Every structure is written in C-alpha cells, then in structure tokens.
Amino acid sequence: MNKILVVAFREFIETVKTRAFFIGVILMPGLIVGAIFLSNSITEAGARERAPKKIMAVLDQTGSVFPFLEARIRKFNDENPQRPLEATTTDSDEAALQAGVRRHDFYAYIVIPTGVVADDEPCRMGRGDSQLQLGKTLERLIGEAVKDARFAASDPPIDRKRVERLEREVPVTTVDITTGEATRDDSMTRLMAPFFMVFLLYMGTFGISMGLLTSVLEEKSSRVVELLLAALSPTQLMAGKILGISVVGLVVLATWSLVGWFGARAQHMEHLLSMTRMTVLVLYFIPGFLFMAAVLAGIGAACNTLKEAQSLSSPLTIVNIVPMMLWFYLSQYPHTPLSVALSFIPPITPMVMVLRVCADPAVPIWQIVATLTFLWASVFAAIWAAGKIFRVGVLMYGKPPTLRELARWVRFR
Amino acid sequence: MDDALVLNEVTKRFGTFTAVDRLSVRMPRGEIIGFLGPNGAGKTTTIRMLMSITYPDEGSMEVLGRPRAIDVKDRIGYLPEERGLYRKMTVDHTLRYFGQLKGMPAAALKSRIGELLESVGLSNWRRHTTESLSKGMQQKIQFIATILHDPELVVLDEPFSGLDPLNRDLLETLLRDLKRRGKTVLFSTHQLEQAERLCDRILLIHRGRKLVDGTIEDVRSRFAARKLVLSGEGDFEQLRRSPGVVDEHVTVGGAWLELDATADPQAVLRRAMEIAKLTQFEIARPTLQEIFVRLVGQDEAAAVLPPTEATR
C-alpha cells in the first residue's frame, strides 16, 4: 500500500507540473471567463461605432409605400444617430440599380412591387455587403412600412396603434423555487448550463486521464518501467498511477466547481447549481474517471508511441463525443428509450446521466442505482483487464498489438 | 545456510517458442555468479522470472528462500537490461523515488544517496536532471538505484554493456565490495574474460537449456585435461596417432594435442618422454571463452543433426 502511495504521489506531482494541467485547470476557466467579458465589451464597443450614412435606392411600384418607409427611417435615425440611413426614390430599372450598387453609387436597392400591399408578392433587396444586423434592420423597416401602407389602405380604416396596444407582449417572470425570488430571464443559460457541465466532465475525465496514457508511454519508452517493476508489482504500479491521476481529476473538478459556483453567485444563478446536480456530478464523475483512467493506462501499456495509442483509443474518443453531439436531444427528451439506453454505455454514462438529471431531476431512482452499479462493475472489470494488459504490455516493445492480441493478454494467467 | 537462488525444472514458453527449457540450478549465497550464454539463450527471460516480472509456465523456484521474488522485493536489487531514467527528474529526486519504492525511510535515504554518489564520483551532479548526464553517468545512477537499499541479492542484466574500461573497472570493484560484505551477486554478461576474473561460479545456458554450471575451478577442471602443450627436441610426429587424440598440431619443436574424455594425459606424457627430450609439458587450462565456444558449438551442431545422432 505504501508503495502505491509513493507512486500516486509522484504521479500527482508530475501531472500537476505538466502543461496540460496548467491549461486545463487555470488557463481554460480563465479563458472562458475572459472570453465572456471580452465578447461583452467588444459588443458594447461595436454598438458605439459611428458608421457613414447608408443610402438606399427605392423603386416603389406601389406609389404608396415610400412615404411610410421614409417616416420609418426618420424614426430609426432619431433612435440610432450614429448609424444613419437614407432612402431616395428612383425610376431606373432593376438591372441599372444592381449596377449602381456594384459601382457603390448607393449601399442597396429595394424594389417594392405592386402586389405586396394586397397580396404576398415579395419585395426584393440587393446589397453591396452582407452585414447581418443591418440586413435585418432594413428588412424590418421595409416590412413595417408595407404594413403601414396596408393599414392605411384598409376599408373600413383600422388604427394601427390600437392594434399594437392589444397585441403587446405578455410578460412572464421566472421564479426560483428555492429562494422564492424572481430570477433573470435565463432560458438560454438554463439550457446551456448542463452542456457546460458535460463539457467540463469530458475535459476533466478525458483530458486529465489522457495524461496517464502519456506517462505510461513515457515510462515505457524511457525504459524506466522495468526498474520500477524491480521494486513493485505491475498491479501496484498501475494502482498508484490511477490513484495519483484520480486525485488530479478531483482537484480539477473541485477547482471548476468553485469557479462555477462563484460565477453563478456573481450572476445570481445559484439555482443552476442545485445540490441534486452537484451530487449527481460527483457521484458519476468518480467512477467515470476511474473507468477512463484504467482503460487509458491499459492502452498506454500496450503501445509504444503516442500515435499508436491514439489510434487504439480512437473508438473511445468517438464514443465520448456522442453525449456532446446529443446534448440537445438528451436534455429535451430525457426519458426516451434511446436516452435510457445511452445511460448504460460505461464511458459516457456520467455525461448522459448528468444531462438527463439536469433536464429532469425526476429521473427514476432505479435508473440512477442501476447505471451507477453497472458503471462501478465496469470500473472493476476495466481495472482488472487493464492490470492484465499492463503486466504483459509494459515489457513489450515493437509492433503494437491488435485488439485480438489484447484480448489474449487479458486471458494470460 | 540456504541457497540464494534455486530453479527447479523451470520452463517458459512464448507461444510455440520455448525460451527457457527445464532449467534447474542452485546458487549459494555470498558468491558472484556469472550468467552466460549467447544472444537469445534465455538469460533475460530467466532473470525476469527470478524477479517475478514474468512467471514460469512450469517448474518452481526459490528466491532468498521464498517461492516468489515479489515477497522479498525489498531485499533484492535488480538492474534490468532495458533500463532508463525519468529524463526530467533530478538525480536526487530519482534516487529518492526509487529508495522510497524500496521501502527506505526518508531520513536514511539522504545520507545513503550522498554516500553512494560519492563512491562513483557523481556528488556534484545531485541537483542535475538525469537527461543532462552522459550515458555512462546514467548507468551509474541506475546502479546506485539498484543497490540503494543495501539488498542481500543483487541481480544485474548486462551491467557492463556500454561502459568504458574505466567504469567497467569501477563496477567490478563495486561488485567485489558487495561480495565482501556477504551479498550475493548474479549478473549476465557476454564478456567472458571478465566473468572469469570476477565470478566464483558460472551458469552457461543455450537455447533455454543449461549447458554447464559450477564454480569456475570446477568447470575448468572438467575440461582441463583435454588440452596438452609439449615442446622440446624429438620426433613429435608419432604423437599424432596416440589413442584419444581428436585434434593436433605438430611442428618440429613441439605439439599441441586435444584429447577426448577417455584419453589419459599421463599416458601421452610417458610416450612423449620416450620419443623426445621435453622442455615443456603443460595440461593447458582452457579459458572460459574456449569452453563457451566449444559447448555452444556442440549444442548448435546437435541441434541440426537428427535426434538419434544428437543423443548418441
């Protein structure tokens, strides 16, 4: 036991000193926080931009819409003085207007056909660039102007202001059931929070336990391993390494949880990190991490180069991406047979279950017990098999084994 | 006192290939034992089995009185053939780590490391990373890691490979020192003159089987009576046809004869004294090199003959 601790301690220290750990624990959360602040301030800076006046040439075939458009643009200019617009009326044909846009005579041309007021004939617009926001603004201005014309042409006349007053939005306030207070409108955050949890789970397990694979490979390629085996059994060596890397994993999880918790508090979104969610996260993280660590230790012991190890672990990498790809499905439909079935695939059980429990805390308790039992059983099976592979593989140099050969190593006595 | 190492009909197979074939041997404590054999003879496999790194398919063994080395790992020092160090770790950290793995208390480690580094002249390198050391220095560090915990039994797989003559001498001195302090040393090597100088006992294997084992004196004397060197004045030609001569080389001034096991060297001497005035008669002691070449050569020849011929 003492020797296992010696190995675990070294593994922990060496991993903490690596670049991957620095990136994972310090840089990544830092970058995420930084990115959020940065994107906020960039957007703010963008809003303060002073743009030159944009001119639209309007071919109004209805003869009634243009004055409404001008009025709408005037109103827009009053509200957005730093991004002025201007509409001029024209009689040129569409081809000439397109040439005009190409020559930069004006920013865009707009054709308002006769059928637009009474029927559904579409308006046409051509622009010199593809700025998203400006395009949306122009579409909205044209639409409002046409609607103004429709209201004006209605018989008997209808007061648009009254209609808008009746059609106004009905506000709904979201209340936090634990504090009883109103929360901010955060449906998007609610949706994304479990995704972030799963992403962290993925980074935490796969990212950190990948370090174990590299460290086993390093011990093999630098030929240290047999000197180590002079002092302890392969099983002890593997147990120590897995223990050490698991402590690293726990440190990472704890750091990120703290960052997340303070972040959520700062944003008044504590309700996203409920006790249930955190308990589930920890309950599944530990066996999930051990499973991955055991499998990667086995793969590391079987291979000689990072390249071989990557190709041998690629099925695992692909399986691990599945919950990320299906996160929307899993969080919208947590009770479908597919969601339940995915919960029983050991490497992704933690991620799938976290998504499902976040989506609906009423996931049947038998499923939680069953998935955890199955996951822990897989952990022990993986450690046992990895131990066998480790014992044989660690002293094997040369060609990497095929999956069939690996199965034979497991059966060695 | 019981033996340091005992092997009983130990067999190890890899698939259809038999790496070690019913190997039986006893090695007493307190001696330096040379483990000899050509490349691929099964030395490393045998050593790994002794160290509980791999396990025999058949047969049993005893290491320091226990059936498995794993039970007595802290009393054994093992330097594998495939050896290296953590490149980014300092010499001090590396040795501490190995010391702790061997169950040494931290307090004792510090002075012990200093002492051993001193003895190989690497005291100034204690704070350097191992990758900044030359290959020879790294090998010394590996050797220190092997004997750090003052083991009773030291097993070294090709410890001399890659060492320059100065370091080879240093290592020989260190091994003799271990023996003087009552330790048992087993090492494998290709360098036969060295084994001859250093060892009390040898074990020679080929194709996984034992060809010979015993003390150096014992092994030599078993082959000693077979080679005669004579010189003087007379007609040595007649000696060519003496009974039991298998190989000869006769000149005007002398003869060199090799006899088979049935021949009596004394009879050849009496005959030579009749026909010549001898100035020299010597029953040459074969070198380990010659014994090695002959035994391995015979075994090689036996392997290519049909079984009936080979066992005749």
- Spatial ordering of strands, largest sheet of chain A: 2-1-3-4
Sheet-strand content of chain A, in percent, reads 5-15%
Number of helical runs of chain A? 17
Query: What's the average pLDDT of chain B?
Result: 85
What does the radius of gyration of chain B come to?
Answer: 24 Å
Radius of gyration of chain A: 31 Å
User: Which H/E pattern describes the elements of chain A?
Assistant: HHEHEHEHEHHHHHHHHHHHH
Number of strands of chain A: 4
Q: Order of strands across the widest beta sheet of chain B? A: 5-6-7-3-8-9
Question: What is the total domain count of chain A?
Answer: 2
Estimated helix fraction of chain A = 55-70%
- Assign the CATH class of the largest domain in chain B: Alpha Beta
Strand portion of chain B = 25-35%
Distance between the termini of chain A: 23 Å
Question: Overview of this structure, please?
Answer:
- The complex is a heterodimer of chains A (413) and B (312).
- Chain A has 413 residues and is mainly alpha-helical.
- Chain A is 69% helix and 5% strand.
- In chain A, strands 2-1-3-4 form a 4-stranded mixed sheet, with helices on both faces.
- In chain A, β1 (54-60), α3 (65-79) and β2 (85-89) form a beta-alpha-beta unit.
- In chain A, α8 (187-221) packs parallel to α11.
- Chain A starts with a helix and ends with a helix.
- By secondary structure, chain B is of the alpha/beta class.
- In chain B, strands 5-6-7-3-8-9 form a 6-stranded mixed sheet, sandwiched between helices. A 4-stranded antiparallel sheet of chain B has the order 11-12-10-13. In chain B, strands 2-1-4 form a 3-stranded antiparallel sheet, covered by helices on one side.
- In chain B, a hairpin with a 2-residue loop joins β8 (201-206) and β9 (209-215).
- Mean pLDDT of chain B is 85; it is low at 306-312.
- Classes of the chains: A mainly alpha (413), B alpha/beta (312).
